[in-house]
Amino acid sequence: MRAKTAMVMALSGGAAGGELAMPRMMYGTAWKKERTRELVLAALGAGFRGIDTACQPKHYNEPAVGEALEEAIRSGVVDRQSVFVQTKFTPLAGQDERVPYDASAALGEQVRSSFETSLRNLRTTYVDCLVLHSPLPTHEETLEAWRAMETIHRDGRARQLGVSNCYALDEIRWLHDAAEVKPSVVQNRFYAATGWDRDLRAWAQAKGVRHQSFWTLTANPKAIDSPPVREVAHRLGVSGAQLFFRFVLQLGITPLTGTSSRAHMCDDLAVLGMRELSADDMAAVADALERCYPRPASASA
Ligand SMILES: NC(=O)c1ccc[n+]([C@@H]2O[C@H](COP(=O)([O-])OP(=O)(O)OC[C@H]3O[C@@H](n4cnc5c(N)ncnc54)[C@H](OP(=O)(O)O)[C@@H]3O)[C@@H](O)[C@H]2O)c1
């Protein structure tokens, strides 16, 4: 698909209630190191309008994401209002020695300080979504961090809040109940060990919580490369990766792709413009997952 059409598709959904709707696919910026700026610019140029990052120097170069955003805005590729910018507060356990806040400060202060750094890094006055990178060891700690995130939201500096690496249905239910500002995003691995989050996704859909996936391709290579999936992809004239992303989209998931290839950026965005997969083709991919990664019947995709 041409970049222009892909861009329109990436923006589908538009704004709701003054908030920029989350794009149906997002560009992930982990592990890009010194190539971050160049790759984020390429992703925006290709048509991505959702960027995921984190205030976590161990895995993300958040300042380079900000440089790319500023450059893309300056050169007229995008305006700030059209890009869904998402970052994370990463608790101490997920940081290396480059902790981007005072590790001895109270949790709420760590969240505030990390967020100030994110705004500076990203060269923006607000983010579209602030995500808790993972729940903390106790509910009390998780809630302390969440309360600080709620304050940031109320100040208008994070339009939505989310949580990541939250795989237990009880845990996200608890957070949703305890939160005054409800999580509107859950960002999780899409993999067999959790039954591809089947129950959690059903709950999330009912509550209006958007599910974002990572490890989408890398955790499921046997299924993507299986003969039935290859046969469907061949018939539809797409790659196995594209078919799999389309399958995931039709499950109601917003996949993240962190591709470093410009060709794959276009291939991934083209998935948004693919024709709807038939029920039989959806079943073929779901069956391949079940057969390649056997799970109890209750945990199927
Ligand atoms: N919340 C968390 O804890 C967490 C953890 C991990 C990741 N994330 C987020 O999720 C993003 C995505 O990470 P990921 O773990 O899913 O992996 P990824 O970095 O997106 O890597 C996916 C792999 O898929 C390949 N790929 C992508 N499109 C393809 C295509 N059309 N055809 C063939 N291969 C293709 C890429 O290779 P090429 O580069 O060659 O295309 C790459 O090897 C990260 O950047 C980050 O933002 C969040």
Q: What's this entry about, in short?
A:
Residues 30-288 form the NADP-dependent oxidoreductase domain. This is NADP-dependent oxidoreductase domain-containing protein. Helix content is 44%, strand content 15%.
Highlighted features:
15% strand, 301 residues, 8-stranded parallel β-barrel, two-stranded antiparallel sheet, disordered N terminus, 12 helices, TIM Barrel, alpha/beta, binds NADP nicotinamide-adenine-dinucleotide phosphate
Describe this structure in words.
This is NADP-dependent oxidoreductase domain-containing protein. With 301 residues, this protein is α/β, with parallel strands linked by helices. It has one domain (3-216, 265-274): NADP-dependent oxidoreductase domain (TIM Barrel). The protein has 12 helices and 10 strands. The longest helix is centred in the middle third of the chain and has 16 residues, at 107-122. It is globular. The relative contact order is 0.12. Mean pLDDT is 93; it is low at 1-17. Bound molecules: NADP nicotinamide-adenine-dinucleotide phosphate. NADP nicotinamide-adenine-dinucleotide phosphate is lined by residues 28-30, 52, 133, 164-165, 187, 214-218, 239, 241-242, 256-261, 264, 267-268.
